[in-house]
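Researcher: Sequence recovery benchmark, item below. Answer with residues only.
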């Protein structure tokens, strides 16, 4: 087995005293480290009072085995992490030298066993308390895997491939208290599987595949307090399954397929406080089902199919505080369902079918928040003791008198259809603090509407069709802090509108039609902090308009028609920190426009018509941190414009017409971190221009006319991390020009005229992580061109003129995760081209001229997740080519010449989720025999010569058009996940089986040979939105439509031979918006007359379309 040696990054915390080599212990440790050949930059020491390592993290492991001597220098280690590596094996004696280990994290590796030649590798860790094995490849744990771990209290094995657990799996973990097995493939829990682990308090089984559980699955778990069974496929729960769980406090059953809960199922859960059955299919709750739950406090039944509950369902749950029945089918709710609950606080009935005014009796001892959004309510019933009411997204058309409890604090009625509001609708609500009427059609508000709202602090009148504000409409709102009146049709604001609001802090008037503003509009609002006037039609701001607004920090004036900012207009904004003036028509900007803005930090002036910048424009704004002037007409920058901006961090001058930048322009901007000069007409960077930018981290010079870079241009940019030079005319980029950029992380030189890369091109840029060289003329890359780039993660060489690549070109790029070589002219690749790229996750070789591919090309790319070899000339794939790619999730092989793709070639690729093999010459492909059939989500096999296609149960999208398919075979299963099925252009005659795919949303059967279509089978597809059977030789529509289908939006029957049309199609498919009928014999004058008749009686959707 390979040794774990220098290619390791070690982080040690709690390591030594501050002088690491001062005493004997430190010296001894140092010698051990040197003896084991760990370099100094692989160890990070903290300043503590200890003399030994107690916390150790290892990453960037280049070998797949954890050897015993890795801990030689750390005998008293207590916490060890080796997460996110390619670790697949552990030496049997690896942990023998660290018996004091208490916390062990080996997550995100490739482990599949805890044995080494029959020996349990963890056996000696008798003090271990916490073990994290999540995100590995365990399919099962053999008996004895956890031998010796009698003190383990927490075990995490989430996100593995566990399919089964047995009664003896965890038999050695007698003190286990928390077990996380979420995100695995467990499909069944056998009897007494945890009976030995009697101290368990928390079990998490979220996101597995369990449909059924043994009635005695939790036998012996008398101490269990939390149980998470959410997001499985559970259809039914045995009525005795929870009997042993007397101390259970939290039960999560959400996200399953439960449609029924047996009446006595919770009979032993007297301690239960929180229950979640959301997102199931529960239709009914038995009258006494919650009788034993005397400590229940929170109950969530969101997203089920409940249409009613018994009146006394909660009569024994006297501690109940929060209940959610949102997203169900309630038409009404029992008036006294929560009447006796003295501690009740919240009821959520959002997104149901409530249509009449709801009346709910509440205890006099409680104050309740009531959520009724997303129903069909047309009226409000007086609800006493409701202190918060949300009725958004209903069908309220008017607000009349006495509809609200006088003690109510918050009312949200946004997104209704309210047209009329009685003058006294809110008259008695003197305690109301929060009122939201936004997105209605009220149109008219008078002072009397708001006169009783004396405590109002928040008022939202956004988008209510206001055309005018009456004088003193807000005269009673002395305490108002936030006012939103945006998205209306206001053309003017009366001078007295905000006179009474001395506490106003936030005001939005955006997106109206305001052309003018009174100079005294805000004279009383001295506490105003944020003012939004953007998206109006303001052309002019009067002088002195902002006088007195000493608290204003944020001012938004963008997207108006302002053409001028003079000396006086912004005076008074002494504390403003951010101003938005972008997207106006400003071309006249006074040299003294910002003189009074002494605290200004951010100014946005982009997308205007500014041509000139005054030399002293920002002379008094010495606190400026961000100036954005992009997309103006600036052609020159006076040397003194930014002279005093020593705190400036971001300067954006991109998208102008600047031809040159003088050496003195940024001389005083020593704090600058980002400088954007892209999209100008700069031909060269003058000497000394960037001399003082030692703190610069980002420089954008892209999309200019630069053809030559001076040798000293980047000389002082030692902190530069991102350099963008794309879309210029650069032919050469000598390494000497980049040698000062020792901290450079990103270098973009795409779309230039580079012809070659020479040896040691980036030798001094060791910190480089992303390199973009695509879209050049590169035809040659020297063997050592990338020397020194050991940290490079992303390399783009697309769209060049490469015909070959030498074997050692990428040898130095050990950290590479993303490599693009597409759109070149590569004919062949060396077998060992990528052997050093063990971290590679994405490889793109598409659109070349490859006729074959070496079998060992990706042999060492064990972390490869995405592989693109499409649009080449491949005729076959080597038999063992994909074997090393255990992590592969996406594979693109489309548009090649492949005739045969043996299923066994994918035996090791169980994680594949997307496969595209379209546009080849395949005669057969049996997906169910592949190693990824269980996990594949998207399959594209269109444009081959297949006669049969299989549908695995977990496939979500299948594109199989333009083959010769006669048969569709579906994997035997009680459920299928398929949502999109494209089978157009085949030879199908029978499609009955396809209507068993009850999750389908879109199905295309066009251009087949169907003869007839049983339209009633659509009822079996309740989620179907789009059905296309055009040009499929259909002669008749059979089946009887007898009930409504609520999902179908588009039905295409064009180009068939249908003689008779069932008009119930238009009636029973209640969501139908598009119906294709042209080219059928039944389409005649009578047909159109009948359709018009249906439209006239509102049997069709308002925007229904025939084609």
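Model:
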């Amino acid at each position: 087995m390979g040794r774990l040696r220098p290619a390791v990054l070690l982080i040690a915390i709690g390591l030594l005293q501050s002088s690491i080599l001062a005493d004997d212990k430190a010296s001894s440790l140092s010698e051990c480290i040197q003896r084991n050949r760990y370099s100094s930059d692989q160890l990070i020491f903290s300043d503590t009072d200890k003399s030994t390592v107690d916390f150790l993290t290892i990453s960037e492991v280049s070998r797949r085995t954890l050897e015993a001597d890795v801990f030689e220098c750390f005998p008293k280690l207590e916490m060890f992490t080796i997460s996110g590596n390619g670790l697949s094996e552990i030496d049997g004696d690896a942990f023998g030298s660290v018996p004091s280990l208490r916390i062990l994290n080996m997550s995100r590796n490739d482990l599949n066993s805890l044995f080494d030649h029959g020996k349990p590798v963890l056996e000696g860790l008798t003090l271990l308390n916490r073990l994290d094995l999540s995100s590995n490849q365990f399919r099962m744990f053999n008996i004895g895997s956890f031998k010796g771990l009698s003190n383990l209290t927490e075990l995490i094995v989430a996100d593995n491939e566990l399919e089964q657990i047995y009664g003896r799996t965890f038999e050695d973990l007698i003190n286990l208290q928390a077990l996380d097995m979420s995100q695995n493939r467990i499909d069944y829990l056998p009897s007494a599987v945890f009976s030995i682990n009697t101290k368990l308090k928390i079990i998490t089984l979220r996101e597995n595949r369990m449909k059924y559980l043994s009635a005695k699955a939790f036998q012996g778990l008398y101490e269990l307090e939390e149980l998470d069974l959410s997001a499985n496929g559970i259809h039914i729960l045995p009525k005795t399954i929870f009997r042993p769980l007397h101390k259970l406090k939290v039960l999560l059953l959400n996200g399953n397929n439960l449609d029924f809960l047996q009446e006595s199922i919770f009979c032993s859960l007297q301690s239960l406080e929180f229950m979640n059955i959301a997102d199931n299919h529960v239709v009914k709750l038995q009258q006494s089902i919650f009788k034993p739950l005397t400590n229940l406090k929170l109950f969530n039944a969101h997203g089920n199919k409940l249409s009613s509950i018994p009146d006394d369902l909660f009569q024994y749950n006297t501690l109940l505080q929060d209940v959610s029945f949102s997203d169900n089918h309630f038409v009404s709710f029992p008036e006294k369902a929560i009447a006796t609950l003295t501690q009740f606080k919240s009821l959520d009935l959002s997104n149901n079918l409530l249509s009449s005014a709801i009346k709910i009796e509440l205890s006099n001892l409680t104050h309740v928040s009531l959520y009724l959004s997303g129903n069909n309510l047309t009226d409000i019933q007086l609800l006493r003791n409701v202190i918060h009411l949300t009725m958004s997204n209903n069908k309220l058309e008017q607000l009349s008198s006495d509809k609200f409890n006088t003690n109510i604090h918050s009312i949200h009625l946004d997104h209704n259809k309210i047209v009329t509001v009685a003058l006294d609708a809110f008259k008695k609500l003197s305690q109301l603090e929060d009122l939201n009427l936004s997105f209605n059609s009220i149109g008219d508000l008078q002072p009397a509407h708001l006169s009783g709202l004396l405590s109002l602090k928040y008022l939202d009148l956004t988008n209510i069709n206001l055309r005018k504000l009456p004088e003193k409409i807000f005269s009673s709102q002395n305490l108002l802090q936030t006012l939103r009146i945006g998205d209306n049709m206001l053309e003017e604001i009366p001078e007295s509108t905000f006179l009474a609001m001395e506490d106003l802090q936030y005001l939005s008037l955006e997106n109206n039609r305001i052309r003018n503003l009174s100079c005294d509009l805000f004279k009383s609002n001295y506490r105003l902090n944020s003012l939004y006037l953007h998206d109006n039609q303001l052309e002019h701001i009067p002088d002195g308009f902002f006088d007195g607004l000493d608290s204003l920090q944020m001012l938004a004036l963008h997207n108006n028609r302002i053409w001028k900012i003079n000396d006086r207009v912004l005076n008074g904004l002494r504390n403003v920190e951010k101003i938005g003036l972008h997207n106006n028509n400003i071309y006249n900007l006074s040299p003294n426009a910002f003189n009074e803005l002494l605290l200004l930090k951010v100014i946005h002036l982009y997308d205007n018509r500014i041509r000139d910048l005054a030399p002293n424009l920002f002379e008094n704004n010495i606190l400026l941190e961000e100036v954005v002037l992009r997309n103006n007409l600036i052609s020159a920058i006076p040397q003194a414009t930014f002279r005093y901006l020593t705190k400036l961090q971001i300067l954006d001058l991109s998208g102008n017409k600047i031809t040159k930048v003088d050496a003195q322009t940024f001389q005083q901007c020593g704090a600058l971190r980002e400088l954007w000069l892209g999209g100008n007409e700069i031909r060269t960077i003058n000497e000394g221009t960037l001399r003082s930018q030692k703190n610069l981290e980002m420089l954008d010079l892209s999309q200019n006319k630069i053809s030559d870079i001076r040798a000293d241009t980047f000389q002082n940019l030692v902190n530069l991390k991102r350099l963008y030079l794309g879309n210029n005319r650069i032919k050469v980029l000598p390494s000497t020009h980049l040698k000062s950029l020792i901290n450079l992380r990103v270098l973009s030189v795409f779309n230039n005229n580079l012809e070659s890369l020479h040896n040691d091109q980036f030798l001094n840029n060791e910190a480089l992580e992303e390199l973009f060289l695509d879209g050049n003329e590169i035809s040659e890359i020297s063997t050592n061109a990338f020397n020194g780039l050991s940290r490079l993660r992303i390399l783009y060489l697309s769209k060049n003129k490469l015909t070959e690549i030498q074997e050692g070109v990428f040898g130095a790029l050990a950290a590479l995760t993303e490599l693009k070589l597409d759109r070149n002219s590569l004919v062949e690749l060396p077998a060992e081209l990528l052997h050093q790229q063990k971290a590679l996750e994405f490889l793109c070789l598409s659109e070349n001229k490859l006729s074959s591919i070496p079998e060992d090309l990706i042999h060492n790319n064990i972390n490869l997740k995405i592989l693109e070899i499409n649009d080449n000339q491949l005729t076959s794939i080597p038999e063992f080519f994909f074997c090393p790619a255990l992590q592969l999730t996406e594979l693109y092989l489309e548009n090649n010449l492949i005739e045969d793709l043996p299923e066994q070639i994918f035996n090791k690729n169980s994680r594949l989720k997307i496969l595209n093999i379209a546009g080849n010459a395949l005669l057969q492909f049996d997906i169910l025999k592949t190693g990824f059939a269980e996990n594949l989500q998207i399959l594209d096999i269109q444009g081959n010569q297949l006669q049969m296609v299989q549908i695995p149960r977990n496939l979500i999208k299948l594109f199989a058009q333009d083959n010769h398919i006669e048969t569709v075979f579906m994997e035997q299963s009680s459920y299928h996940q398929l949502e999109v099925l494209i089978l157009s252009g085949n030879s199908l005659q029978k499609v009955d089986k396809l209507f068993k795919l009850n999750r389908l949303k879109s199905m295309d059967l066009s251009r087949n040979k169907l003869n007839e279509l049983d339209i009633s089978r659509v009822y079996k597809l309740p989620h179907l939105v789009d059905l296309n059977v055009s040009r499929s030789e259909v002669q008749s529509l059979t089946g009887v439509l007898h009930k409504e289908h609520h999902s179908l939006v588009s039905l295409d029957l064009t180009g068939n031979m249908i003689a008779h049309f069932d008009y119930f199609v238009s009636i029973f498919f209640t969501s139908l918006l598009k119906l294709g009928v042209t080219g059928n014999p039944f389409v005649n004058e009578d047909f159109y007359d009948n359709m018009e008749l249906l439209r006239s009686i509102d049997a069709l959707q308002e925007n229904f379309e025939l084609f």
